[in-house]
Amino acid sequence: MKLYEKLADEIEEAVRRGVFAPGEKIASVRQASQQHGVSIKTVLHAYAILESRGILETRPQSGYFVRAKPHAGAAHSQPKRVIATASEVDVSRLVLSTLRSIRAHDAVPFGSPYPDPEPFPWRRINQYANAIARRQSSWNLIDDLPPGNPELIRQIARRYAENGVPVDPDEIVITVGATEAINLSLQAVAQPGDTVAVESPTYYAMLHAIERLGMRAIEVPTHPAEGIDIEALAQIIGRRKIAACMVMPNFQNPLGFQMPDERKRQLVELLGAHEIPVIENDVYHELYYGDTRPSTLKNFDTKGLVLHCASFSKSLTASYRIGWAMPGRYRAQVEKLKFLNTLTTPSVPQVAIADYLRQDGYDRHLRRVRKLYRQQSRIMSAMVERFFPAGTRTSAPQGGYVLWVELPERVDSMRLYRAALDSGITVGPGYMFSTRNAFSHFIRLNYSYPWNAQSEAALQRLGELVGEIGQRAGKDANMGERA
User: Fold this and answer.
1) Residues forming CATH 3.90.1150.10 domain(s) in the chain
2) pLDDT tens across 33-71, in order?
3) Intra-chain end-to-end CA distance of the chain, in Å
4) Which residues contact residue 140 at a Cβ distance below 8 angstroms, ignoring those fewer than 6 apart?
5) CATH class (in words) of the domain with range 3-66
6) Does the domain formed by 122-362 have CATH 3.80.10.10?
7) What is the pLDDT averaged over residues 297-303?
8) Strand pairing partners for 309?
């Protein structure tokens, strides 16, 4: 065992035994170095491990503290076994209404699906784009044709290769964000009327793609730590024809989990045995909180059945909407559909991002963002625990920037959504993440924006609204029983 691992284990054991209480400040890096007779670098590495395990947390300009104990149970703590039925999909109106509310009311953006752009290097990328535009006043349309800019494709393939994902650059097709990559991939593997298996809850962009193409969704219970219930999926496959499966194995929106490698392998093997393609939405893949970048389903794909989709929108810049697909055996079909659907992806954004990746500190930027999101996830979780009524539970995100919150069962998330909007606050109601209204007392919160007095006051007000709505619902239920 390495020295920093031994030190981390010793501190974790002390916390477990109650030597250090939740919320208590521990020795500074310099003090710990002196106390344990090790280097400052060793202490920093040990503290980083303890942060990734959820034992410690850092507070800006204050030091390291023992993380408060989690709720008694995690939100949506066990997958609920339900009778799986395929459903028509129509969640787009609710999602569009929510997004318009955020824009129109200039509200506190807890309900936003987008990250705060301020920490991102968008100004630097804009400088590259402006320089490119001045350098070349006109573009040849032929240069924009699929699969995309060769240098950007090379840079993307290089990042995967550096992280242990075997990628053939010729497989990559540049798209207008991950949304287009998902739509093209689904269009390549399924037909209108087909049934597509999705996680439950699932990211609504998946449901939009299914709705747009006239397909049906069948929801599969999903565990908040292990991902889609593979056993339940196997039973569904045994009963009916499934054209494709759509999942987010890493930092799933809204649950935030990182699917264990063994479960990823089992999922790919199950679908491969039935020749069922799987569309992997890996848009949050760079926003991990651990020490290493997570594996993808692509790591375990030997048949070309994984259609991997990602983008720079969540980690670099959302304004340029540059994504990509690695569609395996369906690559030719996806490239053809890209040409038929949108013809090209604009060149200037592609070249600007390629220049940034080649010349600037993308990894340095990502380290800052990951640290920021990890800190703010813990702050928001602690504040929900503090301000929301008993019976509230939260997820434990391993990456990304969203928190899934289970409210007391009597609290309807649409009623809360409307009441919160009247107070200048937005939330993501649970109705958006299912076709079956299965998460009516859940909400999704975005913690990427700065934590300040305004956001704390907004979350406190949100907790008050949850309590008020729950009390009213309880009184209505009692009146109904007496009647």
Assistant:
1) 92-117+375-482
2) 888 888 888 888 888 888 878 888 888 678 888 987 644
3) 68
4) none
5) mainly alpha
6) no
7) 96
8) 281, 325
Q: Where do you find CATH 1.10.10.10 in the chain?
A: 3-66
- Sign of the torsion formed by the C-alpha atoms of 95, 100, 102 and 107: negative
pTM, two decimals, is 0.80
Residue 99, pLDDT score: 67
- Give yes or no for a contact between 8 and 2, defined as CB atoms under 8 angstroms apart: no
Q: Which residue is it, tokens 């007391």? A: 408
The first and second tokens of residue 409, run together, are: 């069962």
Of 467, 400, 283, give the one whose Cα is nearest residue 475. Answer: 467
Residue 306 has pLDDT above 70, yes or no: yes
The whole-angstrom separation of Cα 61 and Cα 267 is 44
- Enter the tokens of residue 459: 């979350």
Residue 196 and residue 186 in contact, taking contact as beta carbons nearer than 8 Å = yes
Q: What is the pLDDT of residues 83-141, one digit of tens each?
A: 455 555 556 666 776 666 666 556 899 999 899 999 999 899 999 999 988 876 655 55
Residue type, 30: R
Please give the backbone phi and psi of residue 343, each rounded to the nearest 5 degrees, phi first. 65, -60
Q: What stretch(es) of the chain map to CATH 3.40.640.10?
A: 122-362
User: Looking at the DSSP assignment, which residues form a beta bridge with residue 220?
Assistant: 199
CA nearest 357: which of 368, 370, 366? Answer: 366
Burial of 367 (0-12, 13-18, 19+ CB in 10 A): exposed
Question: Does domain 92-117+375-482 correspond to CATH entry 3.30.1440.10?
Answer: no
Extract the tokens encoding 177. Answer: 């964000």
